[in-house]
């Protein structure tokens, strides 16, 4: 149930961390680059522009997202594929592997880090960014509504997959011969429009929740959640302030 138009509603806020992540990737002329969780492919095209001599793969598990990515012309070196983020196998080892706000959908990050490192060539760089706001009011309120008797039984299997700490990522990757640069940033977004935080969540966090419900129950869920979010995140004339924390990791593999 990925909706490309809903996801890109807050395009500027979602793409900013990508550029901050990419600014720390110091690779001059890679030959094979991949973007795991490429979505609509906007940012994958940035990779192709930065490294025009590279073959760039955009991979996403959503057929809808990949179809949207393929709608626009792309250079011959840019390829979009449907594939699972952990299971996708590149045809050759990668020199740069990027993932922007996608890996939190994959369970067991200890195993995931091992699988990602195995896709890399010597001296390659793994760079990823994941949300780290799972204790924010927005997510706590989603859990609160999920636990209501009307929804609890159906939504019990829909579990959150919080990400690891920076220290854990450093340990997992250093143990596989990577040199790690890791940091955390909290953004203050001023989201435009009515029910702005709900609209943000509809593009990501609420996707599996609503997918598990029937049409009537989806509407009931949103009617329960909306007022709670409005109380937690009051709107102002300049927008709705929304704090969002993200974790960044850039790791280089040794020879």
From TrEMBL:
Could you provide one GO biological process annotation from this protein's UniProt record?
methylation
What GO molecular function annotations does the UniProt record carry, in alphabetical order? trans-aconitate 2-methyltransferase activity
Endoplasmic reticulum as UniProt keyword: no
Per its UniProt record, what InterPro entries does this chain match? SAM-dependent_MTases_sf (IPR029063), Trans_acon_MeTrfase_C (IPR023149)
Q: Which CDD domains match?
A: AdoMet_MTases (cd02440)
- Name the Gene3D superfamilies for this protein: S-adenosyl-L-methionine-dependent methyltransferases, Vaccinia Virus protein VP39
Stored Pfam families: Methyltransf_23
**Matching SUPFAM superfamilies:** S-adenosyl-L-methionine-dependent methyltransferases
Presence of the UniProt keyword Hydrolase in the record:
no
Q: Which keywords does UniProt give here? A: Methyltransferase, Transferase
The protein's name: Methyltransferase domain-containing protein
Phylogenetic lineage = Bacteria, Pseudomonadati, Myxococcota, Myxococcia, Myxococcales
């Amino acid at each position: 149930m990925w909706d490309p138009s809903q996801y890109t509603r807050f395009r500027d806020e979602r793409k900013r961390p990508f550029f901050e992540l990419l600014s720390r990737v110091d690779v001059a002329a890679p030959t094979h680059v991949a973007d795991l969780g490429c979505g609509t492919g906007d940012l994958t095209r940035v990779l192709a522009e930065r490294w025009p001599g590279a073959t760039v793969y955009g991979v996403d598990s959503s057929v809808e997202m990949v179809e949207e990515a393929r709608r626009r012309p792309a250079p011959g070196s840019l390829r979009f594929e449907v594939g699972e983020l952990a299971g996708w196998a590149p045809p050759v080892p990668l020199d740069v592997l990027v993932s922007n706000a996608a890996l939190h959908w994959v369970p067991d990050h200890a195993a995931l880090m091992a699988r990602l490192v195995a896709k890399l060539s010597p001296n390659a760089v793994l760079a990823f960014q994941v949300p780290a706001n799972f204790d924010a009011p927005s997510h706590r309120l989603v859990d609160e509504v999920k636990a209501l008797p009307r929804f609890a039984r159906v939504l019990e299997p829909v579990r959150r997959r919080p990400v690891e700490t920076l220290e854990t990522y450093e340990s997992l990757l250093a143990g596989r011969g990577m040199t790690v640069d890791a940091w955390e940033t909290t953004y203050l977004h001023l989201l435009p429009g009515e029910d702005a935080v709900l609209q943000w969540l509809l593009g990501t966090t609420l996707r599996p929740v609503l997918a598990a419900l029937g049409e009537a129950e989806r509407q009931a869920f949103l009617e329960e959640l909306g007022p709670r979010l409005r109380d937690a995140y009051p709107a102002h004339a300049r927008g709705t302030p929304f704090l969002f924390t993200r974790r960044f990791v850039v790791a280089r593999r040794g020879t």
